[in-house]
UniProtKB/TrEMBL annotation:
InterPro entries: nSTAND1, P-loop_NTPase. Residues 56-193 form the Novel STAND NTPase domain. GO terms for molecular function: hydrolase activity. This is P-loop containing nucleoside triphosphate hydrolase protein.
Length: 537
């Protein structure tokens, strides 16, 4: 690679030297003759020898495939397929290269795996080896000559990010790409993890958007094709929920379900999480390995706060708005740069509702291997606590935007508050208040119970906060229609006593609310109070 820059500067001169002895018409005749002879050898046979097989189960990418084929038929075409690991970039590329219109357009279609090419030199060596050329110091020149004197061809560089991501290598890799794009009848197609295209290449417009997970319909079709049997739709939806419709995770969970059954897969998931899908030895059959490769990329290693931010986002199934992310004061180094790094590597994406989200397999992997430290979680819990308390204090008013903001974070409340139930946390009492109030929000919003009240009693036993006790017991009684209360009278008596001991307006409100609830349920109120009492005894 030492002389690559010098060679790049001379490449236009090379074009002149190679064809200087021929007129324009003679050059055209030469290329046409080569094309004809190769075609006579068997167009399909010649091309298929250079490509892996087309994907056999391929749903939900019709739109992307149509756009990609349209781009590849332009002259010249330079296209990058981007997206997170396991999203199906290689499958889409191969489906396009096997399409009849593309195979008719290009005599030769080359597939070069760059997964193990960790440097510019190794990238060039991979291309040289694939083309069957002799290794030498002038390898870039030989590659250039080979394609220049050949027929219309497409070169697919799969997993180019391995060589391109190191900052020290980017310029040289981009020089190789620039050299290749100077060949007028060579189409360049690359697949790369992330959402960023290399520079120094005039990529064909409109750009192909980074790939997203499959639709629910496409995911179910894929699952059904792999498992090949009758299934309960509810079971399938639960299993697909583990994958977030990421093709690699979907394929792996379907293969396991086909042999072990749905119940076994769900049971194993509770114990093993993403390691359940990581029994293979390469990234195409090992989900943990695929995610690990993204996390160990040079861009991630160069941004110390990126992993911290990712660990925080792994707690948020609903994602987080960019406004909230900036408003909450997280102790994360270079927040802006960290967010940009995660988006460029496609470990985080911006959803249609403008929230930063992490896919389920990545969230589960991070929570297991790199959970967020307490110092990062506390500001988030305080923020959610403040949000739910504003709703509690002003729920009788049309507080601008507060209900939609809570509704957009329902899953976040459950995971973040449960994560804060720890005696070592200084805000444990606040967290318990948040859980009780959040349950009230869920009930009043028509979502029944939050399912979190059962987490509270073990902590109440060791706290002497009467207001918290009364709030919990009152909410417990109000939601009694969703669960069994073994001894209602005893629970009511204890709740009222805690209300009395709380000795404040909030406690009296809880008492009156309790009276109203019991009356509506037609239950006897415990002595010495009656349903007509309006004041404390």
């Amino acid at each position: 690679m030492a002389d690559m820059r010098e060679q790049a500067e001379k490449r236009h001169e090379e074009l002149v030297q190679l064809f200087s002895a021929q007129s324009e018409s003679a050059q055209s005749d030469t290329v046409s003759l080569i094309n004809k002879r190769l075609f006579d050898l068997g167009n399909s046979t010649t091309s298929l020898l250079l490509l892996p097989a087309t994907p056999k189960i391929f749903y939900g990418r019709d739109g992307e495939l149509h756009k990609l084929i349209h781009l590849l038929l332009q002259d010249p075409a330079r296209v990058a397929i981007l997206g997170p690991g396991g999203i199906g970039k290689t499958s889409l590329a191969l489906a396009a290269l096997h399409h009849p219109d593309v195979s008719a357009r290009y005599i030769n279609r080359h597939f070069v795996s760059c997964e193990s090419a960790a440097s510019p030199d190794e990238l060039v060596s991979s291309i040289v080896s694939h083309l069957g050329l002799e290794p030498s110091r002038n390898a870039p020149k030989h590659i250039f000559r080979h394609f220049l004197s050949g027929p219309p061809s497409v070169l697919l560089l799969d997993n180019l990010e391995t060589a391109w991501e190191p900052l020290a290598s980017q310029s040289q890799v981009e020089e190789v790409l620039s050299l290749l794009t100077d060949i007028p009848h060579l189409t360049l197609l690359v697949t790369m993890r992330g959402a960023e295209r290399p520079g120094r290449v005039r990529w064909t417009r409109p750009f192909l958007a980074p790939l997203e997970p499959l639709t629910d319909v496409a995911a179910e079709q894929t699952f059904t094709d792999i498992t090949g049997g009758l299934h309960d739709d509810r079971d399938v939806r639960e299993l697909l929920g583990l994958t977030d419709n990421v093709p690699l995770a979907l394929q792996l969970v379907a293969n396991i379900a086909a042999f072990e059954g749905y119940d076994t897969v769900l049971s194993r998931w509770q114990r093993e999480k993403t390691s359940l899908f990581s029994e293979g030895r390469d990234k195409r059959s090992n989900l943990d390995l695929s995610i690990g490769l993204s996390l160990s990329s040079p861009r991630m290693l160069d941004s110390p706060g990126a992993l911290q931010l990712l660990s925080l986002l792994s707690l948020l199934p609903d994602g987080i708005s960019e406004t909230d992310l900036l408003q909450i004061k997280f102790p994360i180094a270079e927040m802006g740069r960290s967010k940009t790094t995660l988006m460029r590597t496609s470990l985080v994406s911006l959803s249609h509702d403008k929230r930063l989200r992490v896919l389920v397999p990545i969230r589960e992997y991070i929570q297991h291997h790199s959970p967020p430290p307490a110092a990062i979680c506390r500001p988030l819990r305080r923020f959610l606590h403040g949000l739910i308390m504003v709703w509690k204090d002003y729920q009788h008013l049309s507080t601008a935007g507060i209900t939609p903001r809570i509704a957009a974070n329902m899953g976040n409340f459950r995971t973040v508050l449960a994560h804060g139930l720890d005696w070592n946390e200084p805000d444990l009492t606040e967290t318990l208040y948040s859980i009780v109030t959040f349950d009230s929000f869920c009930r009043i919003s028509g979502k029944r119970s939050s399912g979190m009240l059962d987490l509270v009693p073990p902590y109440l036993e060791h706290l002497s906060d009467h207001r918290l006790h009364s709030a919990y017991l009152t909410e417990f009684i109000v939601t009694g229609q969703y669960h069994t209360i073994p001894d209602p009278a005893a629970v009511e008596r204890i709740a009222v006593e805690h209300c009395r001991l709380a000795g404040n307006v909030s406690g009296e409100d809880l008492f009156l609310r309790l009276v109203h609830t019991i009356a509506n349920r037609g239950m006897a109120f415990p002595r010495p109070w009656s349903v007509t009492k309006q004041r404390w005894p």
